[in-house]
Amino acid sequence: MPANGLKDFDLSGKCALVTGAAGLLGKEHVAALAEAGAHVVMTDLHEESLRAAYESLPEFARALASVAVMDVTKAESIAQTAARFERIDILVNNAAIDPKVTNDNRSLELSRLEHYPEDHWRLHLDVGVTGAFLCIREFGTRMAARNSGVILNIASDLSVIAPDQRLYRVEGREEHEQPVKPIAYSAVKTALLGITRYCAAYWAKAGIRVNALSPGGVFNDHNEIFTTRLSALIPMGRMAHLSEYRSAVQFLCSDASSYMTGQNIVIDGGRSIL
Questions:
Q1: Which of 103, 11, 92 is nearest to 44 (CA)?
Q2: What is the CATH number of the domain that holds 219?
Q3: Residue 132 sits in which domain range?
Q4: Active site residue 116
Q5: Signal peptide span per the entry (predicted)?
Q6: Backbone angles phi, psi at 160, to 5 degrees
Q7: How do residues 233-267 score in pLDDT, each as one tens digit?
């Protein structure tokens, strides 16, 4: 296939579906795909947050986006969405549960491995792993029947490195009371890489490319202590800006990456190379 320069990034006439589209990066993925010309179906579990995410998009993205409430843990919900939109050319598996870092890390208090709740573990895997599998099974099968499609799994830098739990420490607490990033998050993001490689090989002759994107930490009004600690671990000395993954999404979802499949692109300011 001859190279067409920037024309290879053009997604005009394509329809993309993004799961977890109401989330922090989900909205950015939607904007990235719309910027390249794709019609984008925004899906998430809660209609209110989905509508709010849609309204927060730039005008050009709203013109190319539509919303659909979809539960990635329910095969019937996914099938209903697939039937509604008929042809999905690009699937972005972005849905996940990511514990937020508060000023005192209180949201991570129940995350220690020694007493990590089984229901938390199951919920993380249901959304991040089973959800991705169910979406791939539904939309990927339809892509294979057309001999064309792209699947992008959104992983994390924690798919290739372990969490540095020092980031979450709270001064004055006993070791057994220190908050940590939960094991389920690493399990989910690492599993997505295995799914990526498996599906890339499985559907290579069916015209489907499957890749993963592993973002590093994105600044989102994190507390100063956390931001300083994390920035010190990153060679570039800062967290990512929200828009800094857009071009990677456009590359991986377009013909610009036509000879790439089964790969994981890590964009983390260099943190994982140390």
A1: 92
A2: 3.40.50.720
A3: 5-273
A4: no
A5: none
A6: -125, -15
A7: 999 999 999 999 999 999 999 999 999 999 999 99
